[in-house]
Amino acid sequence: MKPPTPSPLTLDQLNVAALDDAVHWLDGVYEHSPWIVRAALAQRPLKTLAQLQYVCTQVVDGAPLQAQLDLIRAHPELSGKAMVANSLTAESTTEQASAGLTHCSAEEFATLQQLNADYNARFGWPFILAVRGPRGTGLSRSEIIATFARRLQAHPEAERHECLRAIHRIAALRLNALFGTTPEAGNAVWDALEDLATLSEPAYAAQGQLTVTYLSDAHRACAARIAQHMRDCGCDSVHIDAVGNVVGRYESDSCLRTSSGRKGPKTLKKSKALLTGSHYDTVRNAGKYDGRLGIYVPLACVLALHQQQRRLPFALEVVAFAEEEGQRYPATFLGSSALTGHFNPAWLDQVDAQGIPLRQALQDAGLDPDALPALQRNPADYLGFVEVHIEQGPVLHALNLPLGIVTAINASARFQGEVIGVASHAGTTPMGQRRDAACAVAELALFVEQRAAHDGDSVGTMGQLQVSAGSVNVVPGRCQFSLDLRAPTNAQRDRLVADVLQAAHAICARRGVTLTLTETLRASAAPSAPQWQARWEDAVSALGLPLHRLPSGAGHDAMQMHTAMPQAMLFVRGENGGISHNPLESTTADDMQLAVDAFTHLLAALAHEIDTANTTATPHPSPTLHAP
Ligand SMILES: [Zn+2]
Predict the structure, then answer these.
(1) For the chain, what is the mean pLDDT?
(2) How far away, in angstroms, is 290 Cα from ligand 1 center?
(3) Last residue of a domain, one of 119, 153, 178
(4) Which of 178, 205, 227 is the last residue of a domain?
(5) I want to staple 230 with a disulfide (CB 3.0 to 4.6 A). Which of 60, 129, 238, 282 is the partner?
């Protein structure tokens, strides 16, 4: 006789139950595959639901390939024979019904059957998709069909990983249901970002695309919407500054005591602020989370504090930076540069593709270029800067980890290069007598690939390779290329650059071609401040998740803030292989919830540190951590 599953189930019950009972309770979390939860439960006690989910993913990752394939094949086809025959598991029936798959039109049903057949023929297993989607409320049938058609083109190995990721996502949603858990804050962040993403430049909006470039009408509308969201969350003050940043502040307890005229403790100094935020401008045809996630995760914390009527011994200043992506003007990081005092007045004369100078664009938007210098913050007023950002890469996704600790924003160097050889007849010039410019560049590209890989965490890319005026029957006489090299420290970047330049010259000398290389950018690494990185690590550990430290290959506002104050970043896993700067960029409401939980933990720990240091101040109640 198996004991009935408690409803809702709690981790305490799960941790103390007999193994067979616990396995029975989690029956159905992984379709017809109880071996996964059995192995995961062997690692009890489990601290959080997130830990249970992660441990399950590790069991599957550690299983032989055949077991992984069996797990995939234990799943029914979407809208397939099992559904028609009414032989799905209860969980699958609910999920397929939530996506409306039980109400397909005849045409949709036929399309799905064809996709099922093609997919099975190509991969040899059924297509797996978490049809409840990243928000948990169900994907539309058209979204499902589009995803199905896209993934049919994937590389088999990548697709196997994607199926396993979908299975873990399905399991996470089933666990949420068993434990009666809803990611309330994550859902709220999700919904706010959906709301913000309705504002896009008309030419792109017409194609269903998100594009918000600096000071466009859509950009100004976003600023107004963010300001409204900040007020709704309970920020004490909200304003749009001279560069277009939206700044919301949630004041400290001491500030309120002083301003309300009540007498604070004698030793009380004006409390500092924690600065946080990210950018709200986008690339063209962007995802909805790049930058914006880092605005709304801290706002969810402000909302919780406001609802609990709690104050921290420091102010929280959330900045939605106006410009980071460099889409409209050559200069980038305009929003954060204004705060660090690095906004170069010469940038005001830069023109966009329409010939509109930045100064005029600011004035047209009702902003005052003369007020820019006054935006510079005094670092003494701040504790530091923290930024939450979607990873924009595949690392956390591949590790099945929702959060990652950023160690540094990579140093980078960029070059534009040109190799000149001899454009000769493709038919008559023997291989040993050629001066092929493209082959020299190709050899260099392979060297860059190997040399960067050798470091483990360096990256090297030649994204532009052009044989201008090339012809099918002419040996390339000229090849232009770009070179982008990045590494977590300046020293590592410099060694990489030196080796690549040396190889470039050696390759060209040996091949008898001429090389010119122009350095176009050299940016210093922004290592995370150890103390702040440690605070993120404590927060992630408190969620029961293992720490994964990684450098940021992409530039972020934190890189600019680094010039003024200590900074550290937290990465949130991206779905769809971590793709970014692409409409497929995605994350889940559950991962957003974990980011809010981590941020909440960081605030509580910081409050505790400050209260402990300032023993004359009254002890401060810590904000409570959100479930789980
Ligand atoms: Zn970004």
Answers:
(1) 93
(2) 4
(3) 178
(4) 178
(5) 238
Stretch 511-540: mean pLDDT, rounded? 96
- What share of residues in the chain are helix, strand, coil (percent, to 5)? 45, 15, 40
375 and 425 assigned to the same domain: no
- CA 337 to ligand 1 center in whole angstroms: 15
Give how many domains the chain has, as a whole number.
3
d(CA 247, CA 244): 9
Position 510 confidence tier, pLDDT thresholds 50, 70, 90: very high
pLDDT grade, residue 614 (50/70/90)? confident
Q: Are residues 316 and 261 in the same domain?
A: yes
530 domain residue, yes or no: no
Distance 556 CA to ligand 1 centre (A): 6
Same domain (yes/no): 50, 19:
yes
Q: What are phi and psi of 404, to 5 degrees?
A: -140, 150
As a whole number, mean pLDDT of residues 153-166 equals 96
- Kindly give the interhelix angle for 217-233 and 293-307, rounded to the nearest 10 degrees: 20
Q: Is residue 374 part of a domain?
A: yes
In a domain, 540, yes or no: no
Residue 286 CA to ligand 1 center (angstroms) comes to 10
Per the structure, the complete domain to which residue 416 belongs is given by 411-524
The residue to which tokens 């660090």 are assigned: 340
480 closest CA partner among 414, 424, 423, 416: 416
What pTM does this model have? Answer: 0.90
Q: Do residues 123 and 173 share a domain? A: yes
CATH number of 119's domain: 1.10.3330.10
CA 378 and chain centroid, separation: 29
When mean pLDDT is compared across 103-107, 134-138, 434-438, 617-621, the lowest value belongs to: 617-621
CB atoms within 5 A of ion ligand 1 belong to 290-291
243 part of a folded domain: yes
Q: Do 398 and 427 belong together in one domain?
A: no
For residue 84, the CA-to-ligand 1 centroid distance in Å is 45
The C-alpha atoms of residue 437 and residue 447 are separated, in whole angstroms, by 16
Shared-domain flag, residues 129 and 227:
no
Task: Tell me the CA–centroid distance for residue 582 and ligand 1, in Å.
Answer: 12
Question: Would you place residue 619 in the very low, low, confident or very high pLDDT band (cuts 50, 70, 90)?
Answer: low
Query: How far apart, in whole angstroms, are the C-alpha atoms of residue 571 and residue 551?
Result: 10
CATH code of the domain in which 454 resides: 3.30.70.360
C-alpha of residue 294 to centroid of ligand 1, in Å: 9
Q: How far is CA 108 from the centre of its chain?
A: 33
Residue 256 · residue 250 · CB < 8 Å: no
236-261: b (≥16 Cβ within 10 Å) or e: bebebbbbbbbbbbbbbbbbebbeee
